[in-house]
Amino acid sequence: MKSLVFATNNKKKLREIREIIGNKFEVLSLEDINCHEEIPETCDTIEGNALQKAHYIKDKFGMDCFADDTGLEVAALNGEPGVYSARYAGENVTPEQNIDKLLSKMEGVKNRSAKFRTVIAFIHGDVEKEFEGQVSGSITTERHGEGGFGYDKVFQPENSDLTFAEMTSEAKNKISHRGNATKLFVDYLNDEL
Ligand code: IMP
What we know:
The protein has 5 helices and 7 strands. It has helices spanning about 10-20, 45-60, 95-105, 170-175, 175-190, and strands at about 1-5, 25-30, 65-75, 80, 115-125, 125-140, 155. By secondary structure, the protein is α/β, with parallel strands linked by helices. Helix 1 links the parallel strand 1 and strand 2. It is globular, with a radius of gyration of 17 Å. About 30% of the residues lie in helices and about 25% in strands. It binds inosinic acid (IMP).
């Protein structure tokens, strides 16, 4: 079986991709390959960071690798928080603090359009590929729901009355940015490798 490294230790992401990929590929985490260092994410784009993480592993460990990066892009804020979504309110903040900052910046703003964007960068041999998934929606004026993570409580996808935090994870994965990027990536794996 061919092995691929997923440059993450996020257990939820690992479980999800392993379920989708099935038996054809073995997906290894950073822990599995004994990579315990912090991988730099110093680019100012989502694409750049995904590629930087995948390159880091490919260059250092010589293994085929993929990495993902996601951002929430709010139209009225010129695409903020974007690549800085995890640390919008500062370094080492909670998701709730990020949401507080977002809601206060959006106070009184009429155009509440936003989208989540995920890029998966994959390096195998000397081939470099990117797969992008998006979901459009809007930022609610208050928190709704208890599920999910990150900005889920204030993101309502298009054609839905519920925020991501009010949906089951299955319902969210079917339409989500990460779900869409993952589908493209898995199709590529099945067709090309
Ligand atoms: P990452 O690149 O997957 O680590 O995502 C960066 C940041 O984007 C996270 O820390 C969250 O704040 C936000 N984010 C990513 N995916 C989601 C999602 O599915 N729902 C809500 N927030 C998310």
